[in-house]
User: What shape does this take?
Amino acid sequence: MARPYIADKRLAVVHVLRTALGKVHAGTRSAWVLLVLAPVLLSLGLTLHAPPQVNAQSMSREPIAHWPLDNDANDAGGNYHGTLQPSGNGAPVFVQHSAGEGVGSHALRLDGSNDFVALGAHASNFPQGKSARSITGWFSVGSSAIARSTFFAYGTRANGQLFAISADRTQATVGVTGHQWGITGLNLDAGWHHIAAIYPGNGRSDAIKIYVDGVLQTSGTLAGTPRAINTGSSIAQIGRNAAGDSYYQGDIDDVRVYGVELSAAEVMDLYSPSPLQASGELVETDLNGATITLTLVGDEFAATVSNSHVTVSGLSGVSVTSVVRDSDTQLSVTLAHDGSDISMHTPLTFTVAAAALVSGEDPVSAELLVNAVFEAVTYTVSSPDGSLTATVTAEGGNLSYVVSRDGDELIAESALSIRDGSDHLVVGSQAASHDSTWEPTWGLYETIRDHHNSLTLNLDVGGIEFDLVFRVFNDGLGFRFAADEQPALTGTTLDFNVRYNLDASYEAWWANGEHSPEGPHALGSLPGSPAIGTPVVIDAGTHGFMALLESDLYSADAFASIPFARVSGESAIESESRSGAIPAGDFITPWRVVLVGDTPGDLLESTVAVNLAAPLALDDTTWIEPGKAFFNFRTLGYETDDGTFTYENNTASVQRLIDHAVDLGFEYVNTDGKWFDQIDNGVIVSQLPGFDVSTILAYAEANEIYTTIY
Assistant: This one.
């Protein structure tokens, strides 16, 4: 039985974290751990289950809708027929193709005035929200055509909710309301040209790929700013935009809507289809003896076609054992497979030699795409004491995780991903344990123990190799994505998305800037505002307390601090973090961290976040002198028990705090703002009356107390 390909080239967890991410902040372990919780904690159990069986099917990228536009506006699939507008005597006309031109027999001619095809009743059946899509078709316009007129449009007239394609001889663009993206200055010749707008499903309008005549164009912003795509379902039409104007002037033919991101090869095949087509159903675990059909267009097979005339490539150990000539234009090809490992998402490429063609001078080829479909498989990793467990499930190209403590579920099954619109396929896994101690430059502890179990999942995500690394401690866990430098990664935009499905009875608090924390809020009825800050602290009732945060954002410079958001109508929190274009070099995300404890105080004492942070990069730390500090703002307005003194923002109050620091063995006194009276363009013009900085500094020095002033 064929087995999924298992990669063995992955780096060990420690190597990935210390070489690919070796940066720090101020402590021996990045003391500036930014606490931002994104519940994407995957299940890390030292119990590894066997890889899943892989069923491979022939993946014929059939469109959701296909309008050949030969003599009517009907959908070839029979589902989404269009209506010519206007109707009656003024309706658009169909013109016959000249010999050797176009697709099919006819094309639709639009006058640029009021002609179009109405598809409005079907808009909700086309890709919605930010889901992946591909829209293709042919156009032919004259030199007098209206610039940037609409080829195809559907959605809703609101920012980011429309998807409208324009194409003529000078430009090809996609508009999403609020952003026009594409290319100008094409200078196409008269005649037929092919347009394809490909959106990978990652949520942004500047990720759309535009192909003209099978060639990917270098696109840019033409108007507005990039928008989050959230396509609606109000309208759909060929030859007119959502506003009821921008009518197309020219001929349109063979328009197709797909619910997937077509590859460059698939776009090229639509523009210039191969004369050889492969069809058939393949099960990857049973390729030995499988039969496919090769169909030839525009030529005939020779009277005698032997096994040697047909070859197959793309999958290790697969060969051709039998070729039967069914007709002048059709061959049946039987395959053999030696049982060697199979890499997933690799097409079979069939090539027929020129000698097997009646009039061919060159060999012809066809690809049959193989789609890996997984049975669900789980990976688990638990803390050294066995109390905390993360369970990760891989199924159908998607990843999800569950976090449990003492057998009780804290975070229910929740999705996580690194690239929207791409399958996340597990091709290998490794487990490890680690136990060491280290000395921080500053903090609560003289030494810190780094004791965890880890799981690394090796992933193929749309042709890019990632590691998903989990570390589980007794009091929390963290996970991150990492990748070695590779051409497919450079320049790519990634989406680090995590969801936390939580019980509706849980209560949450979160940071609220310089104001008092928000909460408690029941997760079953979260308020609409303010925004959810980080960290998020959660009272899980009898299950204890949790905190959601993030660590080592400093090393992961492709991302900003984690954004938390409510999930409407559900007791869930989610985070969607989008990167910029990834530069050449190794790549990592921040750690997503979950802390657990019996009390809120347990969360404060946790060392999980600093253990996950990058090691200190400073060679000399002798100038760092950690210590305890008094904070003057926390005493303002306090009157002593004997009534003889009230703390105010003045010299005497700070001197009194210095005396307390001496008595209690504190090293610092911190004075916050409002000690100045007037500032002019960033320069302190006068101090607050009664607050003498020179006197305070002299007094602190005499008592050997450090003073910081904000």
About this structure: Helices lie at 13-20, 264-271, 600-605, 608-612, 651-664, 693-702.
